[in-house]
Amino acid sequence: MSPPVVVVVGDVINDFIVRPQGPIEVGTDTPSEIERSPGGSGANQAAWLAALRTPVRFVGRVGAPDAAYHREALEQLGVEAWLASDDDVATGTIVVVVSPDGERSMFTDRGANLGLRASDLPTLLLDDAKLLHVSGYQLFEPGTRSAVRGLWAAALEAGIPTSVDPASVAGLRKVGRQSFLDWTSGAQLVFPNLDEGRLLTGRDEPDEIVAALLENYPVVALKLGAEGALVAAGDGRRVPMAARPAEIVDSTGAGDAFCAGFVAQWVRGRDLEECVLSAVTAAATATGQVGARPRPT
Fold first, then answer.
1. Per-residue pLDDT tens digits for 214-261
2. Does residue 134 lie within any of the structural domains?
3. Is 197 a member of any domain?
4. How many structural domains is the chain composed of?
């Protein structure tokens, strides 16, 4: 039996990853290693899904000069890329500054991603789909939110499960907890990190966070960074999972890899233990390399 198709809607980004080679010298030069790579939370998730041999259809928007570059970057990993191009707005850009412990700070210009529109998301995207996954970034601006919610409603009407990654504490603060919960009503899966979980629930401890989120979502996969993950289901199952041993080189994309690892098994009907083991294993692979996506083989 062929693996099920996952449809992912999210950002496409030009990442510039900066790794200072010493303390940052304010007002002058800091020797650094700088690498450009393709990124964007949704595109990263699609790339990791493809690397995990899960058929995936990705939809996003880029500046026209970068369209061929980003299409090739996704397709060489096995992603079916549906990229709309914008003649007037550049592809989104993020400068990622990575500290010696692998933690990253991001300076973001979402660029063409903000122009995603309903015409970029025809319902034929859902043909043969077994899951629609949406990056939370698409819900933080009115235009992209309206477009995505139309496809979301079509998926629910067709009986196609949906999932969401909240994606950004800053974005959640902007739109508010209740709005996000309302807009993602019907989702089968949610993938917050600890800070996002705290904001969405007003609770502090992982057990309390997943219990609160289960009031809205049947399955909660709470990302805990170096502490691993806690997954919970509405039927009472709880699956804590330690992080896999890894050299922490760059944490960029680790959460995206986690999400993809989980979804890759979930759409195949695997149990929660297999799903979360796949998730933390993929996240460990991501932290052991520079950049947010798997390396082409």
1. 999 999 999 999 899 999 999 999 999 999 887 777 677 899 999 999
2. yes
3. yes
4. 1
Spatial neighbors of 127 by CB under 8 A, at least 6 apart, are none
Question: 154 in a domain, yes or no?
Answer: yes
Q: Which residues contact 221 (CB under 8 A, 6 or more apart)?
A: 189, 190, 191, 229, 231, 258, 259, 262, 275, 276, 279
pLDDT value at residue 291: 73
For 242, counting Cβ atoms within 10 Å of its Cβ (0-12 exposed, 13-18 middle, 19+ buried), the class is exposed
Q: Residues 264-289: what's their mean pLDDT? A: 94
Axis crossing angle, helix 254-266 with helix 272-287, rounded to the nearest 10? 150
Average pLDDT rounded to a whole number, residues 72-96: 95
pLDDT band at 106 (very low <50, low <70, confident <90, very high): confident
Q: What is the reported pTM? A: 0.92
Classify residue 208: in a domain, yes or no.
yes
Name the pLDDT band for 124 (thresholds 50, 70, 90).
Answer: very high
CATH of the domain at 163: 3.40.1190.20
Domain carrying residue 125: 5-12+38-91+113-287
